[in-house]
Specification:
alpha+beta, three-stranded antiparallel beta sheet, 2 domains
C-alpha cells in the first residue's frame, strides 16, 4: 500500500521545515523532501533578524538557538572620511533585540529536527 500525504513539501531548509512543523501540529500528514542529506552546509550570511527569531521563538526554539549562536546588538557604519554612526538592532515584536548568527549547517538541522519531532 502506498503512503498518502496531505501535503508534500519540497525543500527542507528553514522555510520548508518550519512549514512542515506547523502543518504537522495542525494534524496534517506531511512528507518533507530534500535532495541533500542533513545536516548539510549552505552558503549564507547566517544572520537571523529579530522577526525571524520571533517565528523561531513561537516554535519553541529560541533558547536553544541563543545557546549556539553569536549575538550582534548594534551595527556601525563608517564613512571614508572617518565619520561613524552606530545604531541598535530594532526589536520589532520579538523578545530578542539583536541579530543572531548561526551557521546554516546547525540552524537548518535544528529546524528539521523540530519538524520531525512534530510528526
Amino acid at each position: 500500500m502506498k503512503d498518502i500525504y496531505d501535503v508534500v513539501i519540497v525543500g527542507a531548509g528553514p522555510g520548508g521545515s518550519a512549514a512542515a512543523h506547523y502543518l504537522s501540529l495542525q494534524g496534517f500528514n506531511v512528507l518533507l523532501l530534500d535532495k541533500f542529506t542533513f545536516p548539510r552546509d549552505k552558503t549564507c550570511g547566517d544572520a537571523l533578524t529579530p522577526r525571524a527569531l520571533r517565528v523561531l521563538d513561537e516554535m519553541g526554539m529560541l533558547d536553544d538557538l541563543i545557546q549556539v549562536g553569536h549575538h550582534l546588538e548594534k551595527v556601525a557604519f563608517f564613512a571614508p572620511k572617518g565619520h561613524a554612526v552606530t545604531a541598535p538592532i530594532p526589536q520589532k515584536d520579538s523578545r530578542s533585540g539583536h541579530l543572531l548568527f548561526i551557521p546554516r549547517l546547525v540552524l537548518d538541522n535544528m529546524i528539521l529536527e523540530r519538524a520531525l519531532a512534530s510528526g
